[in-house]
Amino acid sequence: MSDRNLTRAYHTPPGFAGSYRRILLGRRDRHRAGDPLPPLEARWNGASATPDRIARYADACGLPDTPNYPLLFPHILVSPMQIDLISQPAFPLSPMGAVHTRIHVLQHRPIPRDARVDVSCRLSASRVLKAGLEFDFTTVLTLDGAPCWESVSANLIRGKKFGDPADPPALAHLDELGDPEGEHAWTVPKDMGWRYARITGDFNPIHISRILARFLGFPRDIIHGMWSAARCLAHLPAPDPGSPIRADLLFKGPVFMESHVTMKHARRDAGHAFDLYCADNPRPVIRGQVRPAEPGERLSDTTEA
């Protein structure tokens, strides 16, 4: 397999429609237990978003209007690149049914709304878990020659054919919340799946159609996990925008459209931790924390096996 097939470069973001078409029509099952995944990589130099798009995102998530990118917004620039990579023939597994299990974000400095950033996204570590094969995308955004934002985003393909499972990595664990110090509740708007999809460009049917979500194994349509995470962050005290910020988010279950959700939160060290509950599910569907980053901290140095 040539390097040309492993590295992709964009001048505009790839469309989700072409990626989903390749995923639906592709017939791939070339992965053997123990095989590493190919080092797929994508680059987009000069990436940007319109101020209107950022404003619509902030409004949909209940975030304040600021002159900079909201903390999780860069993932919207990155996600079409990630979907495009796993839709390529070089990816040896069918990603149908893959689920987003967690994301870790480190913002080194604020990103102005009018900035143009260079984006590098690569398929990095993978591991066999009891539930299946989990793989990471490691992303770095660069502004004026220095990293300004990075993430490690994990996705899971379910199955028992990937080999002997190992223990989950340390990043997959967050301490239980303990006694909450605050609580917020809201109902997921009926139209938020479509509204958020128009902002992100991701019209995955499980987020916009109750019928298709049922066909794909869900009781009904579910809201994007990154929307729910951003909605939670909107209820936490705003961190110092001039200081490095770290967020760790674990997606443990679905948040259904029109469901009533409850977020409980508490202070943890110099930051805040939270759990999000959906309807009568006694277990949190999202567990997260936000804190000041340590000096010199880097996510892209993470090399979990």
What can you tell me about this protein's structure?
By secondary structure, the protein is of the alpha+beta class. Helices cover 22% and strands 31% of the residues. The protein is built from eight helices and eleven strands. An eleven-stranded mixed β-sheet has the order 1-2-4-5-6-3-8-11-10-9-7. It starts with a helix and ends in a 13-residue tail after the last strand.
Task: Please provide a brief summary of the model.
By secondary structure, the chain is an alpha+beta fold.
Succession of helices and strands: HEHEHHEEEEEHHHHEEEE
Query: How confident is the prediction overall: mean pLDDT?
Result: 92
Radius of gyration: 19 Å
Number of DSSP-assigned strands: 11
Going across the biggest sheet, name each strand in turn: 1-2-4-5-6-3-8-11-10-9-7
In whole angstroms, the N-to-C terminal distance is 23 Å
Helical segment count: 8
What share of residues is helical?
Answer: 10-25%
Strand content: 25-35%
What's the structural blueprint in terms of helices and strands?
Elements: H1 3-6, E1 7-10, H2 16-25, E2 41-47, H3 51-61, H4 74-87, E3 99-107, E4 117-129, E5 132-143, E6 146-158, E7 182-187, H5 192-200, H6 205-208, H7 210-215, H8 225-233, E8 245-251, E9 260-268, E10 271-278, E11 286-292
Helix pairs in contact: 2-4, 3-5
List descriptors.
eleven-stranded mixed beta sheet; globular; 11 strands; about 20% helix; about 300 residues; alpha+beta
